[in-house]
């Protein structure tokens, strides 16, 4: 009898403990970090050296620009600047800073920080430096006023400032840790290592820790001057492929999976998960580099056109993202200014063969095709290459596929160059000029330099240069008209051939709210919350 | 009467002593794969690198092992895979045996400083984990089956050098060798005619067992992207493709079973050969 009573007492105690736990669990759940599964692939956390998709997420959470992109992915909203104005010919922009704005150390955001940030972004001569191209002077009449002067009209400048790379840095903190904004910043700046462990912005989050190929951890900025973020701690957990991300999501190890591809999404079925498919501005393209050192056959315009005709575009969409994507006409993505009614890429084997025969290449040739071994936006680039290999084999062109690590690809595309490759791009802000300045055959653009083998062959398209100048000075309907003309020129260049604009899969647990795709920033972390 | 005679004949049949189950079983599997490799081009159901149907088809009567992410027939790719794995294994083992045994025999027979130099080099090479050394060499040479094969030769030859040296040191003490030396035979004749013929048994056994390991290492290098390049139907690469399609289990099934069968068969064959060639060790 005594034993029975003792056991009953133990059972009651156990029930009481469980009851207490069930009461405390929701509170604990609120405090736990929100985990995002993602392939980090970060090239840097220095705002002016970083240039990657995860960098966009990081920078938009820890830094703030003068303006920001609204949720409609088109219009511009105030951020650090409460108001701004441009002169009539778009060469001078004046910004008034919000007097309440403070950095994460509590110091106020001042005009000198803006000046220092823009000068460093320009002078560092890193990947995002093109955003400050044409800036001739930055004046600071007072602590809260900034005047930016351009050498030529730039109607997209305000849009550019919504890019995460234009986030304003606490200049005193960064300078005291080796960062430099001077004209010699490209060699004098020693701040990159410090930025790997620290952030110096005014955003809703600060960098807690970064462990390469492991995790990127944010914590809420205690001194944030805007509305405090709902989630106190967010972790982006390294997860290389779609399957492992989906498994993390299903097991509860992750709350959001960012790179689940459509094929994997089909296999994920759980009432606890939300799977959304949304169109994106991201796209995958193939590139030709006529100036690459390993080029056996001259990849002139007709040859490039022939190869472009041999691609089965719809098949590529079916094979890479299970049909969940869209064709894209030009390197300026669908939906951006100037892309209405552009001619979509065409598969035409007869024309391809005719063009090659006219060049005496009817028996075909071999092209080296180095590609990064990564899955991006649900597209396995090596798999896409194999599909293209099958397509081009129909016109006797052999692709010699060499998968390499993404970092190796970044080096090889610069030197010695890669004759034929595939890569991806996501917008940094809403505006078409970024695509012309990155993909266009205008002097000094990233792809003009690399496709020409750093100037070994002349690929500059003067018409694009002229049209870009006109577009940057234009306003109203002229903007779209001019960018459309540029897009047609870029199509005709056949240096960059878009293959697929994949839909984006947003996969997250039902208790997460605020998950959305942003054209500039991928995933705005500050909008996330737990139900 | 003739029936009785036949029964009597069959009852008298005795398996040869060497024909043990591991040896025959392992040998048959390897032999079957060799035949597949030599003849598959004439009877494989589909071209291994071309579209054969809808992508991600589960196993069916048309595609016994289903199709992969590019709609290629997994069975055909698996069968063609042997045409890449076997030649590599033969090349690697052949080169490793020739290089390793030559250096090992010289080290063991000549001795002195030459022995010291060769064996220290062997020690250094063996001090690296094989997979890491192979990865490092392949990464520096660049992806590709040819480079992977060179990397594996670098990994494998020291094993045979050490084995051969030990055998030579053991055999050179025997009386028939001393007699040959006393009768005025040259050093090279003593080594080639009187020592080496008695050293081959463990080398053959080891080489047989290593055959499967080389296939496995080649597949491992391809799995991590350092071996075969797309669209080569190589088993490691196929498993790598299957690994990212976790829920489409059939993509990795064929190559996985192929590797398993060869590694098991080469181990059985090696065991059987050891039993036959060196009964004392058994």
TrEMBL record, chain A:
Domain annotation Solute-binding protein family: ranges: 76-436
GO cellular component term of the entry, any: outer membrane-bounded periplasmic space
Gene Ontology biological-process entries: peptide transport
Keywords linked to the UniProt accession: Signal
Pfam families associated with the record: SBP_bac_5
Compartments where located: Periplasm
Molecular function terms, GO-annotated: peptide transmembrane transporter activity
CDD domains the UniProt entry points to: PBP2_NikA_DppA_OppA_like_7
Signal peptide positions (record): 1-29
Chief location bin: periplasm
UniProt key word Signal: yes
PANTHER family per record: PERIPLASMIC BINDING COMPONENT OF ABC TRANSPORTER
Annotated family: Belongs to the bacterial solute-binding protein 5 family.
Annotated protein name in UniProt: ABC transporter substrate-binding protein
Organism: Tianweitania populi
UniProtKB/TrEMBL annotation, chain B:
The keyword Transport appears for this protein: yes
Any one annotated GO CC term: plasma membrane
Predominant location category: membrane
InterPro entries in UniProt: BP-dependent_transpt_permease, MetI-like, MetI-like_sf
Source organism: Tianweitania populi
Gene Ontology terms: biological process: peptide transport; protein transport; transmembrane transport
Protein's name in the database: Peptide ABC transporter permease
Secretion signal span: none
Spans traversing the lipid bilayer: 20-46, 86-111, 131-157, 211-229, 249-270
Domain ABC transmembrane type-1: 82-270
Lipid bilayer topology: Multi-pass membrane protein
Subcellular location: Cell membrane
